[in-house]
Amino acid sequence: MKTLRDLAVGQRAAVVRVHGEGAVRRRIMDMGITKGTEIYVRKVAPLGDPMELNVRGYELSVRKADAEMVEVEGG
Question: Which residues does 71 contact at the CB level (< 8 Å), separation at least 6?
Fold first, then answer.
């Protein structure tokens, strides 16, 4: 299973599934990360956390712990 955390800067991938439960899963989905959405990795902070993504035409920063819950394909 490839997750959003595994992607390198400059890679694109499509969301296959959002793992997790309850409020955490809902928060990720509220940010626009839903099944079928294309995500582009713009930057990763020097220490690796957070990641800056381009999702649905806007920039979004997510923690690596949250990125591990997003299963992707492609990249």
Answer: 1, 2, 3, 15, 16, 17, 18, 19
